[in-house]
Amino acid sequence: MSCASCSSTDGFPRGCKNNGTCGTDSCNKLTVFDWLSNMKLPNGQEPFNIVEVRFKNSRKAFYRKGKDQNLSIGDLVATETQSGHDIGQVTLTGELVRFQMKKKKIKEDSEEVLKIYRKASQKDIDVWQKARDREKTIQKRAREMAIFLHLEMKISDVEFQGDGSKATFYYTAEKRVDFRQLIKDMAQAFSIRIDMRQVGLRQEASRLGGIGSCGRELCCSTWLTDFRSVSTSAARYQQLSLNPQKLAGQCGKLKCCLNYELDSYLNALKAFPKTETKLQTIKGVGVCQKIDIFKGYMWYAYKGEWMNWHLLKTDQVKQIIELNKAKKTVLSLEDFSQETKVESLDKVFENVVGQDSLNRFDSPKKRKGNNKSGSRKNSNRKKNA
């Protein structure tokens, strides 16, 4: 799901081999549209000296550039780390970076804002490329080591530092895991510094990426940055069946898209009476069975006659409830029920496969061998006669 590098060697692009476009959409991962790019700064104001840099998958950070560095979106830069340097891609520059820092509550003079050493040279890119090519094999070997040590953890991703001296292992675990022996074994086998970082199931899905049931890439891996809690009440308000196989995403949790239209459903449900309220009639007590939020319909059934449903509008239900509050009873729900129109289908469907009937397989077929044997016997009898 991610390109190794979009740099070029000898005029040929690397990565997904698409010059100008991205075939895997990883170049557009968590991108921000710079709507201030066409606006000029006022006279006397210097451009903002902090840029946003994206690393593997969804990890982003803010870095301070030097005075003589002219950076643009898409440049590969060598950034400062605790030891060595890392290689990242510039994703945002200009005044919009200031708004992003305010949104994430990061001050300009904060210690989190490190500096950019230089633009990445071809030598830096080659070292970074070799380190990234080792990630899959090292991840497989690390999983085998964890299984051998009987550790209840899943190593989901490995990210190398730009200089290849350090690797960060992202893992998920339900319980606390003692991986001290695992770090010793991996440091001895790979000859690098090891950093273990635990992530949640939603963060794991955002790093790995994938295709959802809607046919598009996962929201958490393309544009979603804050993961809000999703409860089963969101599915109940939207009249969805509580099927865990359909409501759960690739992370095993409830889908984040259940919260997208929840506010619209809650606003629409304010015009509906409570479904727990029962309608008192002379014929019987009406109990709500189903509602249609878009059309404003409610279906009621009498106690003991659960198979017969009566369609009512929300205004009619409110009218009956007001009459019941005034200690007045209605004769029946049939006086208020709406008739549902069923459209007749005038189309005649033809058999596109053939004109054979469906019962053609019921009658057993005659065996050809028996007919041949019978004909041979008759011919022999005629010869003998």
Description:
The protein is α+β, with helices and mostly antiparallel strands. Among the domains are: 90 residues, no CATH class; 74 residues, K homology (KH) domain (GMP Synthetase, Chain A, domain 3, 2-Layer Sandwich); 43 residues, no CATH class; 57 residues, no CATH class. Helix content is 27%, strand content 20%. It contains 11 helices and 14 strands. The longest helix is centred in the last third of the chain and has 17 residues. The protein starts with 7 loop residues before the first strand and ends with a helix.
Structural class designation: alpha+beta
Low-confidence stretches: none
Largest sheet: 5 strands, mixed, barrel
- Helix count from the secondary structure assignment: 11
Estimate percent helicity.
25-40%
Mean pLDDT: 82
Q: Find the count of extended strands (DSSP E, 2+ residues).
A: 14
Rg estimate, integer Å: 34 Å
| CA distance, first residue to last residue | 85 Å
User: What global shape is seen?
Assistant: extended
Query: What is the string of SSEs from the N terminus onward?
Result: EEEEEEHEHHEEHEHHHHHEEEEHH
Strand line-up across the major sheet: 3-4-7-5-6
Measured by DSSP, the beta-strand proportion falls in: 15-25%
